[in-house]
């Protein structure tokens, strides 16, 4: 009994020690891998020199077995961070103690997961006879041009298709051989942020589906937008938060205009991830993120709780919120996401449920608006997007969802040329 009480005390004391260093802990993590966010005032070179001197002395004094190692500092605008790999968790607190004025935040490299559930797969290849079908091949695509009515006409009425706009799909990769992308997939710009230099192709299916709803010819909204794979998740679906930060940093560094990111993934709330997303938007991009499919408050997840991202919830054919969709004030808008048909790896089709699919549609809508107003800023496009939204369309809101906005995403009305 005394041994049990002693162990409990030790565990409790360790938890208090970590909390005292203001280190954000995640339930799932990559062992001994931490993200360190620097303050804007920090002199990075001087700080790293102090850290290295501290750990060299600690090893000599046998206060630690092995010093922490540090990755290269990366930046997204004013947002700066690096990855620290430490032999012991107790060493991490020293990263702040060496110079508290340099460290804004430390978080463990939390685990990410795709958002959305795959339901079934249809075999077979796409057989596109033309590149601009008016036919809407799914109810969700059809719903995007309606206003105040769930009576669908199996068509998507839209004048602009996202020309000269680029969609960056932060996901499991994209299968470029799927005919739904009609040679608009950019292999040159695509990147594997999990293992640099490796292929950004999709071996899971989720990323290809998201890319298809964003900009596929058959199942997508922005049928002329370019598509870039930013692979931040592997076939196992679970990877560290650092991969996403690296992906954002890469896209942010590209000297391009009209960049739209679609991030259909989730992790417990991470201030570091949220600030990275916000920094991307500050640099002129647009980031659309899934609200999460856990039937919980979206404010408890990231990047759903990002202030400057467009966070999307999921709706059904009856204009009700999906039973799995997250909700609350961090949701900015809703879009179709239930029973969404789109492309799969290997050239087939797949059906998914979730806020991932809703976010992909919203990303496509934003691309069509930017295609119509190519010389304008991301802020203008976001404002225009919300002006087009259908108000009061959702019905049957549960009490837990009352903090959610009653807004449905909608494409710009089609007008004759």
UniProtKB/TrEMBL annotation:
<keyword id="KW-0378">Hydrolase</keyword>
<feature type="active site" description="Charge relay system">
    <location>
        <position position="356"/>
    </location>
</feature>
<dbReference type="InterPro" id="IPR036852">
    <property type="entry name" value="Peptidase_S8/S53_dom_sf"/>
</dbReference>
<dbReference type="Pfam" id="PF00082">
    <property type="entry name" value="Peptidase_S8"/>
</dbReference>
<dbReference type="InterPro" id="IPR000209">
    <property type="entry name" value="Peptidase_S8/S53_dom"/>
</dbReference>
<feature type="active site" description="Charge relay system">
    <location>
        <position position="206"/>
    </location>
</feature>
<dbReference type="GO" id="GO:0006508">
    <property type="term" value="P:proteolysis"/>
</dbReference>
<feature type="active site" description="Charge relay system">
    <location>
        <position position="171"/>
    </location>
</feature>
<dbReference type="InterPro" id="IPR050131">
    <property type="entry name" value="Peptidase_S8_subtilisin-like"/>
</dbReference>
<feature type="domain" description="Peptidase S8/S53">
    <location>
        <begin position="169"/>
        <end position="377"/>
    </location>
</feature>
<keyword id="KW-0645">Protease</keyword>
<feature type="signal peptide">
    <location>
        <begin position="1"/>
        <end position="20"/>
    </location>
</feature>
<keyword id="KW-0720">Serine protease</keyword>
<protein>
    <recommendedName>
        <fullName>Peptidase S8/S53 domain-containing protein</fullName>
    </recommendedName>
</protein>
<dbReference type="GO" id="GO:0004252">
    <property type="term" value="F:serine-type endopeptidase activity"/>
</dbReference>
<keyword id="KW-0732">Signal</keyword>
<comment type="similarity">
    <text>Belongs to the peptidase S8 family.</text>
</comment>
<dbReference type="InterPro" id="IPR015500">
    <property type="entry name" value="Peptidase_S8_subtilisin-rel"/>
</dbReference>
<dbReference type="GO" id="GO:0005615">
    <property type="term" value="C:extracellular space"/>
</dbReference>
């Amino acid at each position: 009994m005394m041994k049990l009480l002693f162990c409990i005390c030790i565990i409790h004391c360790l938890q208090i020690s970590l909390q005292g260093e203001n280190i954000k802990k995640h339930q799932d993590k990559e062992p001994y891998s931490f993200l360190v966010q620097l303050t804007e005032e920090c002199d990075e070179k001087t700080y790293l020199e102090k850290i290295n001197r501290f750990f060299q002395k600690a090893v000599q004094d046998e206060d630690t077995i092995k010093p922490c190692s540090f990755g290269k500092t990366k930046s997204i605008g004013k947002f700066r961070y690096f990855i620290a790999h430490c032999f012991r968790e107790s060493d991490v607190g020293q990263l702040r103690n060496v110079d508290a004025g340099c460290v804004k935040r430390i978080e463990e490299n939390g685990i990410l997961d795709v958002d959305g559930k795959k339901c079934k797969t249809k075999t077979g290849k796409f057989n596109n006879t033309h590149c601009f079908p008016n036919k809407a091949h799914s109810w969700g695509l059809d719903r995007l041009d309606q206003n105040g009515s769930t009576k669908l006409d199996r068509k998507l009425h839209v004048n602009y298709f996202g020309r000269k706009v680029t969609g960056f799909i932060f996901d499991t990769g994209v299968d470029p051989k799927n005919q739904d992308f009609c040679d608009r997939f950019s292999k040159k710009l695509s990147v594997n942020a999990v293992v640099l230099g490796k292929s950004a192709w999709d071996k899971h299916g989720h990323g290809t589906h998201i890319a298809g709803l964003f900009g596929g010819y058959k199942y997508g909204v922005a049928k002329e937008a370019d598509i870039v794979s930013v692979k931040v998740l592997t076939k196992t679906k679970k990877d560290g938060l650092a991969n996403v930060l690296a992906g954002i940093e890469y896209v942010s560094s590209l000297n391009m205009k009209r960049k739209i990111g679609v991030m259909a993934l989730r992790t417990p709330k991470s201030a570091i991830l949220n600030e990275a997303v916000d920094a991307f938007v500050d640099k002129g991009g647009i980031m659309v993120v899934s609200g999460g499919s856990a039937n919980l408050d979206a404010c408890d997840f990231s990047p759903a709780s990002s202030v400057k991202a467009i966070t999307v919830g999921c709706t059904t054919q009856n204009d009700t919120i999906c039973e799995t969709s997250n909700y609350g004030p961090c949701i900015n808008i809703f879009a179709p996401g239930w029973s969404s048909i789109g492309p799969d790896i290997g050239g087939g089709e797949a059906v998914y449920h979730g806020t991932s699919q809703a976010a992909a549609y919203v990303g496509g809508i934003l691309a069509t608006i930017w295609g119509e107003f190519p010389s304008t800023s991301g802020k203008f496009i976001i404002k225009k997007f919300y002006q087009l939204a259908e108000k009061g369309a959702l019905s049957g809101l549960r009490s837990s969802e009352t903090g959610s906005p009653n807004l449905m995403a909608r494409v710009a009305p089609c007008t004759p040329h």
